[in-house]
Amino acid sequence: MVDLEQLADEHAAKAAAGPHGRSAHLVLHDGVLRQTVIALTAGTSLDEHNAPAAASIQVLRGRVSLTIAGRLQELSAGRLEAIPQERHGLLAHVDSVVLLTAVTV
């Protein structure tokens, strides 16, 4: 069983100590399903990239924005949001940890 709080603590600490302000851990890889904990320090972003076949993001702590076609969609702790089928990025407004769920083909 995976303890998401423990993983969030661990990767938030790694992100804070790391030179790039981020840390990630693949929690689950089952066929086409992948779940990844991603920690970002305040002001850190993931550059725009293509969307997988299907994906969602759940904010475990902090406040982030999905960046989609030049607009920001702000998400705070507790929010679960589908990731649209277009190029997108992620920006942490404060130290944050998210759970990314993706289906790849």
Written as H for each helix and E for each strand, in order along the chain, the element string is: HEEEEEEEEE
Quick one: overall form? globular
What do the pLDDT scores average to? 95
CA radius of gyration: 13 Å
**Distinct helical segment count:** 1
Q: Provide the spatial order of strands within the biggest beta sheet.
A: 1-2-9-4-7
Distance between the termini: 26 Å
Unreliable stretches:
none
Decide which structural class fits the backbone: mainly beta
Assign a percent range to the helix content.
10-25%
Query: Based on DSSP secondary structure assignment, what is the total number of beta strands?
Result: 9
Largest sheet, in brief, is: 5 strands, antiparallel
Strand content: over 45%
Explain what this protein looks like in three dimensions.
With 105 residues, the protein is mainly beta. 13% of the residues lie in helices and 55% in strands. It has 1 helix and 9 strands. The strands form 2 sheets. Strands 1-2-9-4-7 form a 5-stranded antiparallel sheet. A hairpin with a 2-residue loop joins strand 5 and strand 6 (71-76).
Topology of this protein?
Blueprint: H1 4-17, E1 22-30, E2 33-40, E3 45-49, E4 54-61, E5 63-68, E6 71-76, E7 80-82, E8 88-92, E9 96-103
Antiparallel strand pairs: 1-2, 2-9, 3-8, 4-7, 4-9, 5-6, 5-8
